Structure formats: C-alpha cells, structure tokens
Amino acid sequence: MKKILYGLSLFCVGFVATVAQAQVNLDIHLGNQPAPPPAYVGPPPIELAAPPEMVYDEGLGVYIAVGIPHDLFFNNKFYYYHVNGIWYRSGYYRGPWVRTEMGRIPHGLRGRRIEEIHRIREHAYKEYHGHEDRYRGKHFRAEEHRGGHEREIR
Q: How far apart are CA 85 and CA 133, in angstroms?
C-alpha cells in the first residue's frame, strides 16, 4: 500500500510541476509579444465651402492656401498640411492625409517656425487680393477631383 501511495504522490507532484511549467511558459510567451500598433489619429479634416485659392510664394518656394484657417501648402503634386506640430501629405487638398517626416517637406517650409509661415501667408493673402494680375501663372484654385496638379515654378 505504501508503494501505491508513494507512486501516486510522485505522479501528483509531476503533474503539478507540469501544470506550473505550462503556466510559466504561457506567461513568458505572452510577455514576448510585440506591443499592438498605436491607433492612428489623423489631422482634423479640411472642410471648406469651395476649393482654396493657392498663391505661390517666392520665399517659401511653395503655393500657400490663402483665405482659409488651415496651414495648407502645395508643391510638386502634393499638398502639405500642418496641424499641432505635425506635417501631413496628400495628393488631394481634403486628404486622406499621411503623416510625413520633415525630410519630405518642401525645403522652404522646413527651417521656419509655423508663426513665421503664418505671417508670410497673411502677407501673401493681402498682396494677392486686388492684385491678381501680378500673380499671372503663380496661382490656381485647388481642384475638387483627386489626382494632384502639375504646377511647378521655374
């Protein structure tokens, strides 16, 4: 009888050790899983009654959307949108927007603070309205359809 109890107790100890090992392996396995990707939160949408007027600024080397409350720019088939310190890029002025690195932003926008860009935009707006003839070939209205523009100043 003692042999049976001894054998049964060894079996139980072995079983408990196996279960404990499975739990340890499970914890280690779950701990090695990569973190889930962060939820993507894009910029607020650009909602306008009409497509924005884009005016070329020599100093920045890009078109600036004038007369709207958004930091929207255009250069070489792409629109650039600045929101809360983050730059986004799209082929269409309403998006969809993709976050972009500083190296992909047009050169004239990279080294400037957004406050300075705002002053330049306000100046361009005042200069453009009433003097549209000075901007011949250097302005356009963003189009309602997707696909970008072929605008490039030489």
A: 34
